[in-house]
Amino acid sequence: MKEKKRIIAMAGKGGTGKTTISSLLIKYLVENAFTPILAVDADANANLNELLGLDVPETLGGIRERMKNETPQGMTKSDFMEMEINKAIIEATGFDLLVMGQPTGPGCYCMANSILAGVMDRLSGSYKFMLVDNEAGMEHLSRLNLRKLEMLFVVSDPSARGVMTAARIAELTKALGVEVGGKVLIVNRAPEIMPEALIEKIAETVHQTDLVFGGIVPMSQEIFEAEAKRQSLLNLSPETHAVQAAFEIFRRHIK
Questions:
Q1: For residue 38, what are the β-bridge partners?
Q2: Spatial contact of 75 and 15, defined as CB atoms under 8 Å apart
Q3: C-beta of residue 14 within 8 angstroms of C-beta of residue 156
Q4: What dihedral do alpha carbons 227, 229, 230, 231 form, nearest 10°?
Q5: From CA 75, how far away is CA 90, in angstroms rounded?
Q6: What is the set of domains in the chain, with CATH numbers?
Q7: How far is C-alpha 205 from the chain's CA centre?
Q8: What does the pLDDT look like over 174-231, one tens digit per residue?
Q9: Contact, 60 vs 116, CB < 8 A?
Q10: CB of 97 within 8 A of CB of 58?
Q11: Which of 64, 82, 85, 153 has the greatest number of CB atoms lying within 10 Å of its CB?
């Protein structure tokens, strides 16, 4: 029997380090043999590839644009998109990456999105895990027709407002009609000593929502330097405190 793919989504407002946590999750899955993995960068500000040390020759948004005028005569738009998406897959050790990107032209993309959802569903069936790095609005979950998630990790910065925003992002899954097995709050780039008021706000938010508090990932000079030098976070030392903290969160919630 074909193994059912497990879908994890990452979400958070801009500036929380959500894509950094996505990179660390890919590192965790690869190092623990939860492979193969399909990573989809669905953030409008796509930069997951940079944190993984990969170049992006083509985006799914670009393919949708070209489908309108470049589909060869005698080929269906669906077949064209499937062919082009397969060419756009960036292959790496243990995982593949696809970047959604954004359409640049005017007009409705309903048909293109419908075709994209079907192609992605067939494609993702070849992977054990599918990780979707989302923007805060998470509209791409609908575009990819992802209606059932095993896990949603919501990343916040170390502020009361950030935690409240994370709760609102988690609530969006209900409006989108997405079934989520678990919703986990991660507070990223946290100082060594957390303010008592923030700890209380986290406890209050968890009590009032269906979020589970996953844990805290501390500020990291190693990650800061790696990002500044455009080095892959996959090569971070296992002794890095932020890596250890993130891995512990993933270990508790991904079995």
A1: 96, 130
A2: no
A3: no
A4: -90
A5: 24
A6: 6-253 (3.40.50.300)
A7: 23
A8: 888 889 999 999 999 999 999 999 999 999 999 999 999 999 999 999 999 999 999 9
A9: yes
A10: no
A11: 153
